TrEMBL record:
<dbReference type="Pfam" id="PF01625">
    <property type="entry name" value="PMSR"/>
</dbReference>
<feature type="domain" description="Peptide methionine sulphoxide reductase MsrA">
    <location>
        <begin position="3"/>
        <end position="153"/>
    </location>
</feature>
<protein>
    <recommendedName>
        <fullName>Peptide methionine sulfoxide reductase MsrA</fullName>
        <ecNumber>1.8.4.11</ecNumber>
    </recommendedName>
</protein>
<dbReference type="InterPro" id="IPR036509">
    <property type="entry name" value="Met_Sox_Rdtase_MsrA_sf"/>
</dbReference>
<dbReference type="GO" id="GO:0033744">
    <property type="term" value="F:L-methionine:thioredoxin-disulfide S-oxidoreductase activity"/>
</dbReference>
<comment type="function">
    <text>Has an important function as a repair enzyme for proteins that have been inactivated by oxidation. Catalyzes the reversible oxidation-reduction of methionine sulfoxide in proteins to methionine.</text>
</comment>
<comment type="similarity">
    <text>Belongs to the MsrA Met sulfoxide reductase family.</text>
</comment>
<feature type="active site">
    <location>
        <position position="10"/>
    </location>
</feature>
<dbReference type="GO" id="GO:0008113">
    <property type="term" value="F:peptide-methionine (S)-S-oxide reductase activity"/>
</dbReference>
<keyword id="KW-0560">Oxidoreductase</keyword>
<dbReference type="InterPro" id="IPR002569">
    <property type="entry name" value="Met_Sox_Rdtase_MsrA_dom"/>
</dbReference>
C-alpha cells in the first residue's frame, strides 16, 4: 500500500471521485499545509490557518499507479486557477500535490512539466507532505452520505461524469 495526498478544491468532490477508482482502498478528507496544529473547518474557511482541503488516498500500486492517480487528479479539477475551483474561492481550495517520496516528486514534476509543455499555465503547488489532519467526521464520505445536499448536486456530478466517460478502465467493478 502507498499513499497520495492531493488538494484539488473541495474535499467532498475529490473524495467522491477517488473512492470510485480500483485499487483505492481508503480516502480521508482533511487539511494540510497550514501553520496551526489543530485546524478546524471553520478556521480554514476563514483563511486563518493557510491549510488546504486535501484527501489522503491509500492505494494498492498493484492495481493503480501513482501516475494514473495524477492523471485523474489533473482531469477532475482546474490546475490553472490560483486558489479557486469554480465558485469555491480561497487558499484552502488551492491545487496542491504533497509528495511522500522522491519517486512521487519526480513523477509529479514530470506530469506538471508535460502539461506546461502542452500550453497550460499550471499553478499546482508541489511540496513535501506536511502533517495531515483528518477533517471532522461529518466531512468523511460526505457525498455518499448526503447525495441530495445542494452543493453536492451542483459540483460533484460533473466530476463523476467526466470520470466515468474518460476513465472507465480505472473504475471499480
Amino acid at each position: 500500500m502507498q499513499q497520495a495526498l492531493f488538494g484539488g478544491g473541495c474535499f467532498w468532490c475529490t473524495e467522491a471521485v477517488f473512492l470510485q477508482l480500483k485499487g483505492v482502498q481508503k480516502v480521508v478528507s482533511g487539511y494540510a499545509g497550514g501553520h496551526t496544529t489543530n485546524p478546524t473547518y471553520e478556521a480554514i474557511c476563514n483563511g486563518d490557518t493557510n491549510h488546504a482541503e486535501v484527501i489522503l488516498i491509500d492505494f494498492d500500486e498493484q492495481q493503480i499507479s501513482y501516475q494514473q492517480l495524477l492523471t485523474v487528479f489533473f482531469a477532475i479539477h482546474d490546475p490553472t486557477t490560483l486558489n479557486r475551483q469554480g465558485n469555491d474561492i480561497g487558499t484552502q481550495y488551492r491545487s496542491v500535490i504533497y509528495y511522500f517520496n522522491e519517486q512521487q516528486k519526480v513523477e509529479s514534476e514530470s506530469f506538471i512539466e508535460q502539461l506546461k509543455a502542452d500550453g497550460l499555465n499550471i499553478v499546482t503547488e508541489l511540496s513535501p507532505a506536511p502533517i495531515f489532519h483528518p477533517a471532522e467526521e461529518y466531512h468523511q464520505n460526505f457525498f455518499a452520505r448526503n447525495p441530495a445536499q445542494g452543493y453536492c448536486n451542483f459540483a460533484i456530478p460533473p466530476k463523476l461524469l467526466k470520470l466515468h466517460s474518460q476513465f472507465q478502465d480505472l473504475l471499480k467493478d
